[in-house]
Specification:
The chain is mainly alpha-helical. Helices cover 60% and strands 6% of the residues. The protein is built from six helices and two strands, in the order ααααββαα. Strands 1-2 form a two-stranded antiparallel sheet. A hairpin with a 7-residue loop joins β1 and β2. α2 (41-52) crosses α5 and α3 (58-64) crosses α4 (69-81). 18% of the residues are buried. This is MarR family transcriptional regulator. InterPro entries: HTH_MarR-typ, MarR/SlyA-like, Tscrpt_reg_MarR-type_CS, WH-like_DNA-bd_sf, WH_DNA-bd_sf.
Length: 154
């Protein structure tokens, strides 16, 4: 039996709406939290993705973040111009550039990671460890389900 139907649909119970609004609020709050570092939440998320993936390329980071490859390439251009990211030719495939953080980029990524963790803990204040663990597990399950469905055929 389907959970949603047109008769009982309410915006404040729609998972798409709630995920989008939470994401937008979260990114805006991270933007403000990173303002002193002159970094946006998307810049930081990109740099974090590079830091966590030893084989990072523009395409891999774009896929990891569900972001357009062209827009990601432009974001990497900005981060590279600021001296935070470095492109290096892949020795196995000369058409491909591996991405790494510069020492300055790695330090900035870590400073912002600590800011983000503090903000996330603030959002979850009053939640029990069990509630947070269950929430994360449910989001991971939804993520796997959505990934398995594949890209939209629009």
């Amino acid at each position: 039996m389907a959970f949603y139907d047109s008769a009982s649909f309410e915006r404040d119970r729609a998972i798409g709406y709630l995920l989008r609004v939470c994401s937008q609020h979260g990114m805006a709050q991270l933007d403000r939290a990173f303002a002193d570092e002159d970094l946006t939440a998307m810049h930081w998320a990109t740099m974090l993705s590079i830091a966590l993936d030893r084989d990072a390329t523009c395409a891999i980071v774009a896929r990891d973040m569900a972001y357009d490859k062209g827009a990601m390439s432009r974001m990497i251009d900005v981060l590279e111009a600021r001296g935070l990211v470095r492109r290096e030719r892949n020795s196995d495939d000369r058409r491909c550039n591996n991405l790494t953080l510069t020492p300055e980029g790695a330090a900035l990524t870590e400073r912002c990671r600590l800011i983000a963790l503090a903000l996330w803990n603030e959002w979850l204040e009053g939640w029990s460890d069990e509630e947070v663990t269950l929430f994360i597990a449910q989001l991971q399950r939804l993520h796997r389900t959505m990934e398995a469905a594949g890209p939209c055929a629009a």
